[in-house]
Amino acid sequence: MTPDPIAEAAASAGQRDDDLLRTATPSSLEAIDAKLRSLDLKYQRPTAAKLYLHVGGASPSARWVPAERRATYAFVDQSSDDASSPRWFLEVGPGPRVSAPVDSALQLKTIPAQRRADFAASGSVWALRLPTDAELRRFRVEYERCLFENTYGVEATDEGRKEVFGADFAAWARPAEADDTVWADAEETLTPPAAAPGKDLLKEFEEEAGDGDSIQSLALGALDNSFLVGGAGIQVVKNFRHGLHGKGASVKISGGRGGSGSAYSTPKKALLMRGETNMLLMSPGEALHSNGVHHVDVETGKVVAEWRFEKDGADITMRDIANDSKGAQLEPSGSTFLGLDDNRLCRWDMRDARGRVQTIGSSSDSPVLNWSQGHQFSRGTNFQCFASTGDGSIVVGSVDGKIRLYSKSSMRMAKTAFPGLGSPITHVDVTYDGKWILGTTDTYLILICTIFKDKDGKEKTGFSGRMGNRIAAPRLLKLTPLDSVLAGTDNKFHGGQFSWVTENGKQEKHLVATVGKFSVIWNFQQVKDSNHECYRDQQGLKSCYCYKVVLKDESIVDSRFMHEKFATSDSPEAPLVVATPMKVSSFSIANRR
């Protein structure tokens, strides 16, 4: 079993992993308890809890110190007329010493073997030690009830859960009673688990951002080049088996339709297409919505068109764009791409209705993209992000936390709609085969299995049919309370991604997400394993805390794995690329011998 960094006594105060992978080794709570018992005969009270505070951050001297020897706790109802204010607060006294709303930001993690609940509040990390196992169970039940009621605004009863999740998602409402055979069935079809990234995550290359321009996003290529997108232009770098290296040409984007000199702002999205010889750049307009895209010829470094989004003769906006499928950027003649707005899901065609491609030089007006397929929903969908599978099916995440699955043939009605867990989905990804979905929220990632068997026993995914009530409970991927604080002030997850494959029969091996100064890596096979030690003795939805961290000295812009073709015989995975505003670093994962 993986040792708990708080439960075990540090072999030495200065014991550290290497600079890239940080694991804290503070003093054990058991040792502190023993000292307190020897100093204070009144310490053991039948109902007394003990409160500890973590001090020292990630330094070698980090440790737990007693904050309250005779602490009390309560879940307090602070109902008010403001419906947006949380109802339930966790208060730990006397004082109260801690008072925080019961929500996912607490990052609460229970450790039954130590009768302990760790959580983050007010920028600090706390541990509450309960006197008995029964008291810890009662604490967890009360916490889950208050979390449900704060999240959904309904009572945590059977009726309330059914109202939130519906009959088909009983496993989400009561995970302890869920049937995990769907996960087990999926595991049987997988390749043997790859080695998890460990101390042998090695830095290979590091590049400075060119021309003093800060990096805003990555556009990774599967062929010769990848691209660092900045405010003034796009830096070209070479793809190698050990990462990104070597500055190439810098594409300066001045904007301007036919010499009109229209303003250009930093793209929020860069999309490679047509065998990675072309790129679409979508710059945010008002409220992060765009009314068009710049079409760049990568080989010449010039903007060849400014396309405008239009439907039925009226200008419209898009929130996001994506390739038609996982491997579409490699297709040499692709002319379509997907678009998403709050209540729109569509496919755009860069060939106009008359079959003639309009360019900057042919008109003083922007060419208009052809709305070739899609649906404009009346209201209420609040789409936020989307991604496509290998066959072109589409997964869409929403502000209300819902995740919808659309087949490649219809964008009008979702085949499957997973309920939200209360947090907006800010980013979504899907495996090439469409069997697994990874949703990103501010405080956790959610991993969903889409596999089910129809009435004839044939295996399908939720993209191709209605899953019915055989829907497994999802897995959550979280930071420990300590890491959620150490990640920095901007400690919200973003950009959760699977490793990158574009072939049938290939299996993604890892997941990666960015949070503050951390790039966080999970072993995909390990997360899916129902018998994984992380899930033992857990209540509610199972959460995986077994991950490795790449720590940078500034907030990370993006973390993504290169295409699987760049994996070598010495590595189970292609290199990991981590970008900060001024640097891009590449790491390889060496096989354990």
CATH topology of the largest domain: Methylamine Dehydrogenase, Chain H
CATH class of the largest domain: Mainly Beta
The coarse silhouette is: globular
CATH architecture of the largest domain: 7 Propeller
What is the assigned CATH homologous superfamily of the largest domain? YVTN repeat-like/Quinoprotein amine dehydrogenase
Structure, briefly:
This protein is mainly beta and 593 residues long. It is 10% helix and 36% strand. Residues 23-166 form the DUF7135 domain.
Word description of this protein:
- The chain is mainly beta.
- It has 2 domains: 50-156, PH-domain like (Roll); 181-257 and 270-589, YVTN repeat-like/Quinoprotein amine dehydrogenase (Methylamine Dehydrogenase, Chain H, 7 Propeller).
- The chain is 10% helix and 36% strand.
- The protein is built from 7 helices and 40 strands.
- The strands form 10 sheets. It has a 7-stranded antiparallel beta sheet.
- It is globular, with a radius of gyration of 25 Å.
- Residues 1-27, 39-46, 185-199, 254-262 and 354-366 have low confidence and may be disordered.
